UniProtKB/TrEMBL annotation:
A Pfam cross-reference name: MerR_1
Protein name per its UniProtKB record: MerR family transcriptional regulator
Transmembrane portions of the chain: none
UniProt source species: Paenibacillus zeirhizosphaerae
PANTHER family assigned to the protein according to its UniProt record, in alphabetical order: REDOX-CYCLING DRUG-SENSING TRANSCRIPTIONAL ACTIVATOR SOXR, TRANSCRIPTIONAL REGULATOR, MERR FAMILY
Domain of life where this protein originates: Bacteria
Domain HTH merR-type: 1-69
Matches recorded under InterPro entries: DNA-bd_dom_put_sf, MerR-type_HTH_dom, MerR_fam
Keywords: DNA-binding
């Protein structure tokens, strides 16, 4: 079992973020006899997944929705699948946008390099 500080350090997030996720019912840590938060391996795996969803621009409201569906149980599997498929589509669109931006930047960088090499001559 890990403390809130250990989890925050392991995952590279703040304790404030972990408390926020708890407040928003995205995660429910175990409480020890003194009321301190404790996290096990399943919490860590869940948080790693949540962090990836957040990094890929899934809104907190959708993460909360997904967490709620998980909490409700297996009968929500179809809804969870649909939510994740929608997010995967969103990620693919983000990738296309980033690839187009990368190509534009590559073209612009090449143009500057050509211009600068001509200036040196």
């Amino acid at each position: 079992m890990l403390t809130i500080g250990e989890v925050a350090e392991n995952l590279g997030i703040s304790t404030h973020t972990l408390r926020y996720y708890e407040k928003e019912k995205i995660i429910t840590p175990i409480r020890d006899t003194s009321g301190d938060r404790r996290y096990d391996d399943s919490h860590l795996k869940w948080l790693q997944f949540v962090i990836k969803l957040k990094e890929t621009q899934m809104p907190i409201a959708r993460i909360k929705q997904y967490a709620s569906l998980v909490e409700e149980g297996e009968h929500t599997a179809q809804e969870r699948l649909h939510l994740l498929e929608d997010h995967k589509h969103s990620i693919k669109e983000q990738i296309k946008t980033l690839q187009a931006a990368d190509e534009m930047l590559e073209h612009k960088i090449s143009a500057y390099k050509d211009f600068m090499s001509k200036q040196e001559k």
